[in-house]
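Review session, final week

We close the course with one last complete record, chosen because it touches almost every idea we covered. It is Twin-arginine translocation pathway signal protein, a protein from Simplicispira hankyongi with 168 residues. Go through it on your own first, then we will talk.
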Amino acid sequence: MQRRSLLKLGLVSGAVLALAGGAAVLLRPGLEQGRLSASARGLFASLGRAILQGTLPVDAQACSRALAGMVERIDALTANLPPAVQAELSQLLGLLCTTPGRLGLAGLAPAWADASEAQVQAALEGMRFSSLALRQQAYQALHEIVGGAYMSDESTWAALGYPGPLPL
């Protein structure tokens, strides 16, 4: 194969993959009518396990309840975001919930639900310290959403050493 043919093949393949990825995001948005899709819920549960390591309850049932509550608070948050922010978040979540998007943006091969906590943490660290601003921004958004949603519940405050707001 000649170099010119190889370059053409690479460009055409890249364009096809970009179109397919864009179509997948349009067909599987991260938010459906302002609410988290099932795949986005799974994404945030996996992110919660990785980001909140050490602050989640040790008991498996309590941990599951804490993560489910966090996902519900994220769902309530997304429903109250302005439409433009909802659209951007939906694109990010839709992209991360597809295999090409997850590989390209997070560098994670297994699906979010199938990935170990260490794999998700490594993917997040890759995004955090990436030279691409887009990956860093995606990391910051996901980190802030997960941390804010989890720590906004009073039941988490004692484990974090936060006594709560001062009485007025």
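Two points worth writing down before the exam:
Residues 29-156 form one domain.
Residues 70 and 153 are 8 Å apart (CA to CA).
Good luck, everyone.
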